[in-house]
Amino acid sequence: MSAQTRLAELRGYLRLNTSGTFADLDRLSIILEDGLRLRVSDGDLATAYRRQMMKVIANAFAGVLATLFICSSPHRVDAHTVEFARICFSPGRPSQLETSADMEELLDQEQMGGLLGSLRALKENPLLGVKVVGYADKDECRPRECVKLSLRRAKIVFDWLLDHGVPVEQLRGPSGESTDWPLDSGETEDGRALNRRVQLEPYSLRGGGSR
User: Fold this and answer.
1) Is the pTM value of this prediction over 0.70?
2) Range of 8's domain?
């Protein structure tokens, strides 16, 4: 199969699964088409291309990943099989003065896409709830401040979901776990970013679950 054919199929797949909602589709196409012209010997350029391509693909699919299982079976949602996207923040954010109205400034495109995907999942599935839990990285704050920061992260996501129409009955929390339960040792910036997160932990409301 030619590279051009693969590109055409990928474009069709993205349109089918995103319903045209991702602005990055045309940008993704341009990047992929440019990449087809790269020679293997263009080592540094090829590496830079691959990194850029993966970032854009991640942006395009961020919202889809949060609702993958739900979209395939909307009437049989199982909280045990749904995995929501983690929402990762910059060091020290949000500040004490920032609110849910500042969310688009706080999150990059990939993280915002994941949050929007979670919003769609919750609004389309009223029997699915989430516990909103915030975390911090040990290198971004002192212990006492890390407790407050992790709670601010959870609260701003909690408030944002409420502001965008998720019923309070579908939400638990917010709660902050400080630097407990890190996902990474934090030796690299990518690892530390994983620790500066909010997790949406799904649960089912079918049994009359409550907050």
Assistant:
1) no
2) 3-63
